[in-house]
Amino acid sequence: xxxxxxIIEDNLDIANLVSMHLKDNSYQVEIANNGxxxxxxxxxxxxxxxxxxxxxxxxxxxxxxxxxxxxxxxxPILMLTAKSSELDRVLGLEIGADDYLTKPFSxxxxxxxxxxxxxxxxxxxxxxxxNTNKNISIGDIYLDADTRIVKQKDRTVDLTAKEFDLLWxxxxxxxxxxxRSQLLDQVxxxxxxxxxxxxxxHINRLRSKIENDPANPEFILTVWGVGxxxxxETEKAQAV
Length: 240
Prior knowledge:
Blueprint: E1 4-8, H1 12-24, E2 28-32, H2 35-44, E3 49-53, H3 61-70, E4 77-81, H4 86-94, E5 99-102, H5 107-130, E6 135-138, E7 141-144, E8 149-152, E9 155-157, H6 161-172, H7 180-188, H8 196-210, E10 220-223, E11 227-230, H9 233-239
Parallel strand pairs: 1-2, 1-3, 3-4, 4-5
Antiparallel strand pairs: 6-7, 7-8, 8-9, 10-11
Helix pairs in contact: 2-3, 6-7, 6-8, 7-8
């Protein structure tokens, strides 16, 4: 069954162009041209991906993203923004967007991102189907793959879908060092020079949620000049 994609974009020329190319690639597509109708569709129907413009009438993209994540709807979100500041992009990622494209963008790049996101979803599902270990406990962190719940001590850690994927990947391979490009390829499903800041933003947010002192992390460690790794029990014990 084809994957269903919701486009929430008030520029109908852009929406129709993107829709045409997605349909040519065998996706089912629906379009909403304002934030309110887009949110209502996203809440009432099942989609595998939402392409969400940042600047929208009635409700903007940040409000929509915040509302969906607040209701624990973890549908992947690709945010489109005409704004070029890093602050706008990071804010979108912090409230739950999985990736972004800055306008103007090429259709080829958008299609590559969409395909990469679906490849990553399929790969993750296959890994879960083949993995008899549906949970991970390391230190005081517990991850449940079926419910996608993360607990630390007696509290539930609220993570976005991509934050969970990144944490699960790290925790599944403690001690192994990954470059930013490797994490892009394995967690986001694509490798692209210039998008390493996406990894940095997600790691910074993960640290703010699971580390007692994000400036001196115990779990997600920086390996200078190389990348990042998740600490082993021995390393964590030495850090205490």
